[in-house]
Write a structure and sequence with these properties.
Elements: E1 3-7, H1 16-29, E2 34-38, H2 44-48, H3 62-66, E3 77-78, E4 84-86, H4 91-97, H5 106-111, E5 120-124, H6 131-139, E6 142-148, H7 153-169, E7 176-185, H8 190-203, E8 212-213, H9 216-223, H10 228-231, H11 236-250
Parallel strand pairs: 1-5, 1-6, 2-4, 2-5, 6-7, 7-8
Antiparallel strand pairs: 3-4
Helix pairs in contact: 1-11
């Protein structure tokens, strides 16, 4: 049965999508059966793995929210490197606006039949509080929090932890935080070092032992529709994401 992992943070520009596509791809490279679900109407995960959501013939996860007769398997598209993806589309934003609180469990209803086909289901979410994010958290086993290391990081971190705890108390008691992944780290600045030390003091058990350094190579990779782990396998980001993937497979965030 698949382990369901949500990549979530309310703030945009945190490396959330980069983390989703690279962890999904790293796990896929390690011979795991992986499904990447793009729940963000911006469709950045879809584009980031080389799928054009506007291309004729590409089906989108939006269909599963609007038509209960659609087979979830029919929505899955394979990337050029073999990863299974449920693409998003900008129309998903309009669908979300019409969603009601009673539909919070709909993602579980439509994806659960596929769980037997995968080892891991990685879900990218919008960079804001929404019904789509709530659906993902209500369905998931774990949450990975990608945290851009800057002076507002701790505020955003506490917000997402509070949201996860709220979901855990109500919709999904089994939900847990798999780990906090530092992203866009600049090891040469004192502010990065200070923030990392503060996070270690407050959340030492949750902090992954690796971080993703700031690099233009991530942008270059996204422009050609490839995760960094394929675009530049020797890059620091590739090495770090592969280490996190190994930890996910082992079932922890610190190798223990």
């Amino acid at each position: 049965m698949a382990k369901k992992i949500v990549i979530a943070l309310r703030k945009g520009g945190s490396g959330k999508t980069t983390t989703a596509i690279n962890l999904a791809t790293a796990l896929h490279k390690k011979k795991k059966r992986v499904l990447l679900i793009d729940l963000d109407p911006q469709a950045n995960s879809t584009i980031g793995v080389g799928i054009d959501p506007t291309k004729l013939g590409i089906k989108h996860i939006n269909s599963l929210f609007t038509n209960i007769e659609v087979n979830p398997k029919d929505i899955i598209t394979k990337t050029s490197f073999g990863l299974d993806v449920m693409p998003s589309h900008p129309d998903l934003a309009e669908t979300e606006m019409g969603m009601k609180a009673t539909q919070i469990g709909i993602l579980k209803f439509i994806i659960e039949p596929l769980e037997k086909d995968y080892d891991f289901i990685i879900i990218d979410t919008p960079p804001s509080e929404s019904f789509l994010t709530a659906n993902a958290l209500a369905y998931a086993d774990e949450v990975i929090i990608p945290l851009q290391i800057h002076f507002l990081a701790l505020v955003g971190l506490q917000e997402v932890i509070d949201e996860i705890q709220q979901v855990k108390r109500g919709l999904n008691p089994k939900l847990k935080i798999a780990g906090i992944l530092p992203t866009m780290v600049n090891q040469r600045t004192n502010i990065s070092k200070t923030i990392l030390e503060t996070i270690k003091e407050k959340h030492s058990k949750l902090l992954y032992p690796v971080g993703i350094d700031f690099s233009i190579r991530h942008t270059e990779a996204s422009l050609v529709g490839l995760p960094i782990v394929l675009y530049d396998p020797k890059h620091q980001g590739s090495i770090a994401y592969n280490k996190v993937a190994d930890l996910i497979i082992k079932g922890g965030n610190n190798g223990k």
